[in-house]
Amino acid sequence: MSEQKKGLGLATQIFIGLILGIAFGYFFPEYGKNLKPLGDAFIRMIKMIVVPLIFSSLIMGIAGTGDFKKLGRLGGKAILWFEFATTLALVVGLVVVNVLKPGLGVVITNGNSDAIAEAAKKSINHIDMLVNLIPTNIIDAMARQDMLQIIVFSCFFGVAAAAIGKNGRPVIDFATTVANVMFKFTHYVMLLAPIGIFGSIAYTVSTYGLEMLFPLGKLILSLYLALIIFITLVIVIASITVRVNFFHLLRALKEPLILAFSTAASEAALPIAMDKLEKFGVPKHIVTFVLPLGYTFNLDGSTLYSALAVVFISQVYGMPFPIETQVLMLITLMLSTKGIAAVPGASLIVIAGTAAAFGLPVEGIAIILGVDRILDMARTACNVTGNCIAAVVVARWEKELPDDVLQIAYKQDYDD
């Protein structure tokens, strides 16, 4: 049994910051609106960590294998699981929205016409997206925090460093040192998380008000319920498939999940999620490869939300949307939601494009814009959960997370 820790744990501190932020924003809205810089500063500090951490960790992990064949195998297994999870998310979203029918009885409003018009004009070109996987300038890719381009460059760089033998050792050692420093850096930044969360949530509540939840309460309930059902199903299926108790994993991930939910920013949870997965026993080269890849190709929460939102719009306007058309929409979303993370306002664009493609009024997006922040918090936490589960599944498929390591992880979990 480990030595008893004194004081409140970080997850508890973050949760307290979340509750206090809600209360402060509700009771003192004129002051809460001024706290936005606290949340923005914390998110900027997290984003400051992500690029050097991903770059150095990937080089360290990949150089340890020096094997492009293994990388291809890791990528193939990850994509296979991503596709399964995405399909399941879409199916769950469709079932819940058809059963609960959250769009019935909702009053149509004009909403933010500028945002709607902007979303309707945009589209996602997947051919260009594939070409853009290759960076022309890695410094520019880092400045834009384009994770896929950073991953592609780091993979080539890591394999090349391993291929030149002892001459590449100083580079690998340097990357290892940088990765270790960045994890320590993350620890320092996370000490400020409760303050950042307090400021961010206080600003959100004071700006939009809790009363915004009531008219669309059924939509919010539907999404949250769908996400809970989806996560439960994924955990059960993954547990049976790879013989891992994923409920232990959720307990180990409580800090990054609360952080993702509070900030509605996946980047905020990435460094600490990587650290928790490694402590859980997942090898560093799998964590640093699968997690960033999942942030682009495995947005389970956002995918589920897209399916639910499109059907919701059809219900609001009372337009027929038969099940065979919904299945066709499901197939469309399976393709259109891949690789959208790097696109600003991607979920809005996907929903607008899908609604227009199936003859639904794009203006229906206006109805959900007011509560999008509340919806975004839940789907971001789901995205992080899905990617962490994927990393564990791939590690088990690769036979790099043996049972004895898991037993140690479970024991540490209970000791903590």
From TrEMBL:
UniProt superkingdom: Bacteria
Annotated Gene Ontology cellular component terms: plasma membrane
Cited InterPro entries: Na-dicarboxylate_symporter, Na-dicarboxylate_symporter_CS, Na:dicarbo_symporter_sf
Topology in membrane: Multi-pass membrane protein
Pfam family, one: SDF
Residue stretches spanning the membrane: 7-28, 48-66, 78-100, 147-164, 185-203, 223-244, 349-371
Subcellular localization(s) per the UniProt record: Cell membrane
Chief localization: membrane
MF GO annotations: symporter activity
Keyword tags: Cell membrane, Membrane, Symport, Transmembrane, Transmembrane helix, Transport
Protein name: Proton glutamate symport protein
